[in-house]
Amino acid sequence: MPQTADDMDAVAVRTWCSLALDALGREREAIDAINVYPVADGDTGTNLYLTLESAAGAVEAVFAAHETGASAPDTADAVRAMAHGALIGARGNSGTILAQLLRGMAGELALGHDAGHLRRALAVAAAAARQAVAHPVEGTVLTVAAAAAEAAAHTGDGARTAEVARAAYDGACDALEATPAQLAVLGRAGVVDAGGRGLVAVLGALVEAVGGRAPAPVRGAVAALPVPARPVPDDCAAAGGPAFEVIYLLEASDEAVDRLRDRLDGLGDSLVVVGGDGLWNVHVHVDDAGAAVEAGVEAGRPYRIRITHFGADRVHPATEPVQRAVVAVVPGEGLRGLCEEAGATTVLARPGEPPASGELVDAIRRAHAREVVLLPNDAELRHTAAAAAEQARAEGVRVALVPTRAAVQGIAALAVHEPGRSFDEDVVAMTAAAGATRYAELAVAERQSWTMAGICQAGDVLGLIDGDVAVIGKDVAQTARDVLDRMLAAGGELVTLVLGEDVPGSLADALEEHVREGYLAVDTMVYRGGRRSAPLLIGVE
Fold this sequence. Notes:
globular; 19% strand; 541 residues; 6-stranded mixed beta sheet; 4-stranded antiparallel beta sheet; alpha/beta
């Protein structure tokens, strides 16, 4: 539970972004499943997640720049970073609107971070988002944002920040529940608006960030099933609508953007233009993608241009792609070499800086394959990896996410990878191998803390089994033996040891001898994790 802030200072903004990203990660698939408007392309949850991921990353960068200082960045720096990150990372119709909502809030919160400023920030955000949409429609995220702002406005002058946030959340929930009655396509499909549901998740995170406690689960129609209760009607689909989604960042003046809006409005629909101060994010659905890009060139300098053909399976390689590849996240240089020798495309996880979904998507593209097995090798990357897989699928790549929670599970999965068999059989075999591998890690405690195994002191050696602290010791070798004994008590056939850069080879020799003497018919494999790796990783199959 986050510490109660009741103030939208920089720390609260950082916490909000982190909690919102987690919330959208949990609900991404459910939101994708109810996405029927404006195009039933099942990507609203993914687009919201990717947009918020960019915003959260920008805020983290601001805090990282202040690490050497004695204080946190000020609120203005944090909210401006949040807004800029969302703007440059906005995806799809829903993400572009979310970016404008965050930009609208940032403008007010940069001036102050008490309850009154939050109340005004919500109002400015709702108005700015509505103005950014060429043809606003009720029963969408715009309606939900307006209701949130109105509910917040009704709180008294003496209300605390947490009370304003809670009022906005409750107002958004009520408005979301009413969306099927406002927009016929939602009513026919039996779902609430997908973008509005995403905004409810973001506002719920705001309540938790400033109040210290997450709101109760949403109720009624807001808590829609992960898939529609009945098949989406034919008239909810994209058939008959524009063929392409065009998105780009644009450097241009306000006057040029006004002319661009008029031009793009005549080319297609779902037009949303957000931003300001010379930098804009343009989103539109058109049949002539070239004309939409040309309009941007006439207005200024478009870049990061993304064109998606609705419903088409696409691969855009320079040469013919291979049939199947594996993409693996690795925590050390040594493991990178090991996995690449086995044929995998790797993404190096830096300490304290887990890869963003964009890095995983880039790796999938570099793999240059029609079919990709993605191994995140970290429990904390499950939402990021899922979003990356969804984005790659939209680009025509068949992606299977094997939910590996540690590098040793990834090694086990890679060991049984066989490109010659069918994709589904290969994924099943790799998933089974990873699931049959228990994992452990040795780490050094940085401070006194409560753990599942008791109180640890700074400098203690911690043995984590399946993510939880199970052993607290003073000596690396003895702690490793204790961890092995606990893991092998349930049986095992193969022990995998991955040694960090500074761990002597004598430790591996001692642990191999310990296994050999105490556990018959159990083999041991030893690898070097190299630079950036943990002191010791252990896997038991």
